[in-house]
Amino acid sequence: MPSGNVDKPSIEDNRDGTVSIKYDPREEGIHELAVKYNGEHVQGSPFKFHVDSITSGYVTAYGPGLVHGVSGEPCNFTISTKGAGAGGLSLAVEGPSKADITYHDNKDGTVSVSYLPTAPGEYKISVRFGDKNIKGSPFFAKITGEGRKRNQISVGSCSEVTLPGTITDADLRALNASIQAPSGLEEPCFLKRLPTGNIGISFTPRETGEHTVSVKRMGKHITNSPFKVNVCEREVGDAKKVVVTGKGLTEGRTHVENNFSVDTRNAGFGGLSLSIEGPSKAEIQCNDKDDGTLNISYKPTEPGYYIVNLKFADHHVTGSPFTVKVTGEGSNRQREKIQRQRDAVPITEVGSQCKLTFKMPGITSFDLASTVTSPGNVTEDAMIQEVEDGLYSVHFVPKELGVHTVSVRYKDMHIPGSPFQFTVGPLRDSGAHLVKAGGAGLEHGEVGLPAEFNVWTREGGGGALAISVEGPSKAEIEFKDRKDGSCDVSYVVSEPGE
């Protein structure tokens, strides 16, 4: 708590592979929440969040998206302007990836905001009202990568609309189709090759009555478009009428096909979507028997608990999500680990030369640009130098004490890890949550070639840094310390895979 006292929230098991943590704060200010599993911090912990009182008469913001999220999934939060009077509201989200922001005015003094981060890392969310940051802004949200492996498939169900004329596969890719329901709701629908060889349209009927299907090529209707489709009562999908049977939804084994079957014959039309998440990305096979029944199998490679979500017409079928215990041998993944002691970097003084280094092979330095924002919110350009092939350093001379923000952009996009925190004077806070890593080698690589990435430990203070690489083959790890709180790491593997 802001006062330094420690408080315990309540933990509830939701029995579906998720746990809810509930907490009633009693103090205003910055709180830090540590979440540990078996004594180890979970990804992103400790989380920091700002608590405000509801009746402060100020604009306030609250919600999970200001604290944490998962890359590739929307992060949501709410801004409350109740009792705050008139003033312009402005929003910005900065971080390792561009995040698309959408918002909706709820007309009750609150605004719902959603943004979509596409890379893990720390995102800075600024909410300003009448040109001033609101209390707690900027907020820093930790976006983690996908820790659990997830696989999903969708099987559309065709309402029998056949397009006249012959359409080649190349043609099929150039067409776009949408369907408009009687209520006026329009959504995209999918074109697919039917067993008869004709082209059919797959969509999920959500209401009865006459629907209009438009099929366009380069924005122009094709011959006979728009088509009319009539949907009757028994065609509207009902997840409760789907029958699911098979052992594969209660227990499973690694490295074999675990089966179950799904019968949608009495459930109307609807797309079936299946996702399986757990310790490994389980390969899913789906055999659609074209009579409304499907045989589905999945093949996990690691033992543990898997969550199977089975939805029909966008609703969970009875019993979903299923929790499946998978037993058996794991895959023979090789793990290589190195540990290096990192000393705290000497304190930086005002007026001294500050530097931050990073490695980005295969680019031209002309496309790199850097700026530094001081604690007083003054932004200036910083100089970038190429130290050796692919190794760059950012130089600046600070004029005040405190936390500076260093942004490094390549072709106007933040490089992985940017924006960086850089403290001038003694560190106010230290620890693992201030260490950053970024670079192409954390996302992809090639067999036999070094995959490279950077780790910045300067803001985290001293401590032991451990790096492990695990996968189908052993990794040769190389570690270079740049002596300024940054280091670059490269690893070479001999087998493709994850």
Automatic annotation (TrEMBL):
Stored Pfam families: Filamin
InterPro entries: Filamin (IPR044801), Filamin/ABP280_repeat-like (IPR017868), Filamin/ABP280_rpt (IPR001298), Ig-like_fold (IPR013783), Ig_E-set (IPR014756)
Gene Ontology molecular function: any one: actin filament binding
GO terms classed as biological process: actin cytoskeleton organization
Sorted UniProt keywords: Repeat
Family membership noted in the UniProt record: Belongs to the filamin family.
Name of this protein: Filamin
